[in-house]
Amino acid sequence: MAKAYRLIFDENLCIGCQACNVACRLENDVPEGVYRLQVHVTTQGVFPHLGMHFERRSCVMCDEPPCVSVCPTGASFQSKDGLVHIHESQCITCKYCILACPYHARFINPVKNVVEKCTFCFDSRLSKALDPACVSVCTTEALRFGDVSQENSTVAMLSRKETLLFPKAHLGTKPKVCFIPARKGVKV
Amino acid sequence: MSPMWGSTAQYEVMHWSWAIAVYLFLAGISAGSIIVSLLVKWNRHERSNSSIWDAMIKSGTLVAPVSILAGLFLLVADLGRPLSFYWLLIRFNPLSVMSLGVLFLLIYTPIVLVFTLLVFERTIVKYTWLSPLGSFIEWVKSLHSYAKTIEYFLMAAALCVGTYTGFLLSALYAIPLWNSPVLPIVFLTSSISSGIAVNILIGLVFFKSTINTESIKYLLVLDLRVIMTELPLLGIFFVGLLYGGGEVSSMAKAALSHGGLALVFWLGVIGIGLLLPLATVILALRSHVYRVGYILTNATAVLLGVLLLRYYIIYAGQIYLG
Fold first, then answer.
1. Which residue of A has its CA nearest to B101?
2. Do B93 and A71 touch (CB under 8 A)?
3. Neighboring chain B residues of A74 at a CB cutoff of 8 Å
């Protein structure tokens, strides 16, 4: 049966340590200066009512990916499990997919000169039933990953319990990455 | 210094640069000049000249292949991996406007080249090293009973090429300033405008002997109509964005009011590209004297304006992402 992967990012648990960011770089050999994953940390509010905001930026693995439909060569494709990948050899680096992505998740790998993005560590980990590197190193369990179609998986249980927000949901891209928003608001 | 999470430079890259703007301009010129040549051929060919081909048809068939080939070269050179461009030819994705564009160009470019050979037959047969082309031209001429059908087909292909460059951008809902249904029409209109300008310009410079003042007048009237269409279309384009709400409105406002790019729009696109030609065309038509100075100014201003419109749209779209 096809998988229904989901990655849940809990803003309440994130401390902005960037361990995920570093693990991603090591696991996927991401060249200097470019990133598949970043957690942007901002301080919001007015002293003394301050709060931290954590924004995880990466590919959100859309079920309806605009990057796949615009690709003229089929280099950008969607697998049976709904994951979006790139055939490096077929990518002509026309950059159309980079512009089509509402999440700005794609970039050019300056070494290989092809378009690159998060793959959920498919080749090196997920295909061996391991969690993506970012999830495996998360120090506070702010990142949870799994198959929501499995009723007892952590992500399925979290999805039943928590309010999930899907980034730019109004665009109809149906991301597989979602987040639990911070419960503590910042009073201004 | 980069923040804790690292450099954010990758989010600010202009992935489509001036090369794409120039390509859109060249593709528009090519399609526009062929559309204009065909219009002249169909509507303005009763006069006999020293040549059977009017100067406007000659310049159109000269400009169209040169500009589309130059544009395609630029397009391939701008790819991150130019040598892998062949994937565009062996793969086809009907959902991708870029893929559809490749299809249109594969139909359009050869027909344009054949049309050019036919128009310049007398020049070509003068050169012995071009003699193999002579027999090819004879073969094409044997198909003359299909000429009108092929011309209609070429017109359709040119309209597709002129329009697809707009759809190429408007298909991306990630970019608020491009994602407008009016953009393809704006691009087609300005392509026709640039086609008229370039045909008049090349016609005056290279084919003066076969210039037919009637067809120049026909083109100037057409140019007037096209400019009078393009101005309100640009207005509708921006009004549509400003009424789009949320970040679409704020991005459109910023693109129209901030920095050098807004200046490019108001001074370059509107001032030089539309209002100046409008004034010169009206003057030329009213005085009935088609002074070379006027007409050259008009044509140059139109071309500059069309190029700047492509440049403005390409950059503004990528800068004002929301």
1. A72
2. yes
3. 91, 93
ipTM: 0.92
User: How crowded is residue B196: how many other Cβ atoms within 10 Å of its Cβ?
Assistant: 31
Residue B2 lies in a domain: no
Chain A to chain B, count of Cβ pairs less than 8 Å apart? Answer: 105
pLDDT tens for residues B219-243? 888 889 999 999 999 999 999 999 9
pTM confidence score: 0.93
Contact B11 A75 (CB under 8 A): no
Distance CA B240, CA B177 (A): 10
All domains of chain A in start order, with CATH: 5-65+120-180 (3.30.70.20)
Is the CB of residue A99 less than 8 Å away from at least one CB of chain B?
yes
**Alpha-helical segments (H) within chain B:** 18-43, 55-78, 87-90, 97-119, 121-125, 131-141, 147-170, 183-206, 213-242, 246-257, 259-263, 276-287, 292-319
Domain assignment of residue B4, yes or no: no
B154's tokens: 């070429």
